[in-house]
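Researcher: I'd like a candidate sequence for this fold, 95 residues long. If you have to choose between options at a position, lean toward the conservative one.
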């Protein structure tokens, strides 16, 4: 799975714990696109993404229809993990 560059887990209800698992998984290090729409994510999930060890090469991140809120959005904005990010879709997130 180290060659994985696109992962769509939208509508799978993985929640914040699922995102924590992804953010700490070494096989995610080459990932360029991560789609996590509609997964009941909160600001905690956004924090896990923002500071995860291996989510550092993303170009596209979609988080629509979650509950990230203002705090989660600020985690994403302040993260150095997303230096390569070109597209962030975060509508319908209580922001």
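Model: Candidate sequence:
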């Amino acid at each position: 799975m180290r060659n994985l560059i696109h992962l769509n887990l939208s509508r799978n209800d993985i929640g914040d714990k699922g995102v924590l698992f992804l953010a700490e998984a070494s096989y995610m290090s080459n990932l360029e696109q991560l789609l996590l729409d509609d997964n009941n994510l909160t600001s905690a999930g956004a924090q896990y993404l923002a500071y995860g060890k291996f989510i550092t090469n993303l170009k596209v991140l979609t988080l629509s229809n979650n509950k990230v809120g203002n705090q989660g959005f600020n985690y994403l904005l302040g993260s150095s993990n997303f230096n390569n990010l070109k597209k962030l879709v975060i509508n319908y997130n209580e922001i």
